[in-house]
Write a structure and sequence with these properties.
Subcellular location: Membrane
Number of domains: 1
Pfam family, one: DoxX
Keywords: Membrane, Transmembrane, Transmembrane helix
Largest sheet: none
Low-confidence stretches: none
InterPro entries: DoxX
Membrane topology: Multi-pass membrane protein
Radius of gyration: 15 Å
Mean pLDDT: 94
Length: about 130
C-alpha cells in the first residue's frame, strides 16, 4: 500500500509541475519567450516543448502509461537542465533558480516512477 501511495505522489508532483508551466509557454509569457529566444528556439521550441510536456503529464497520470510519460519527461527535463547549465544559467530572469529546481524535481520523480514501474517496461519488451 505504501508503494501505491508513493507512486501516486510522484505522479501528481511530476504532472502538476509539468502542467503548471503550460500556461506560461502557451500564453507567451515574457520569461518563456526570453528563455526560448536565448536558446534560439522561439516560438517553435516553446510551443513544441509545451505540447510534449502536456503529453508527458497525461501519460504519467494514466497508470498503464506512467512509465512512457516518465520516460518522455526525463528526456524533456534533461534538455531543460542542460540548457540551464550551459546556456541560461541556474537563475533565469531573477527567479532564484526556481525553474531549474522544478526541472530537477520532475526529473528525479520520473526516474523513480520508471524504477517503480520497470516491470511494465520489461513486460512490453518480452511481448511478441
Amino acid at each position: 500500500m505504501k508503494r501505491k501511495k508513493l507512486v501516486w505522489f510522484l505522479r501528481i508532483v511530476a504532472a502538476a509541475i509539468l502542467l503548471q508551466t503550460l500556461f506560461f509557454k502557451f500564453s507567451g509569457a515574457e520569461e518563456s519567450v526570453y528563455i526560448f529566444s536565448k536558446l534560439g528556439m522561439e516560438p517553435y521550441g516553446r510551443i513544441g516543448s509545451g505540447i510534449a510536456e502536456l503529453i508527458a503529464a497525461i501519460l504519467i497520470l494514466i497508470p498503464k502509461t506512467t512509465w512512457m510519460g516518465a520516460l518522455l519527461a526525463c528526456g524533456i527535463m534533461s534538455g531543460a537542465i542542460l540548457s540551464h547549465l550551459f546556456v541560461l544559467g541556474i537563475a533565469v530572469e531573477n527567479d532564484g533558480g526556481l525553474l531549474f529546481v522544478l526541472a530537477l524535481i520532475v526529473l528525479l520523480s520520473c526516474i523513480e516512477l520508471i524504477n517503480l514501474s520497470r516491470n511494465n517496461f520489461f513486460n512490453l519488451l518480452k511481448a511478441k
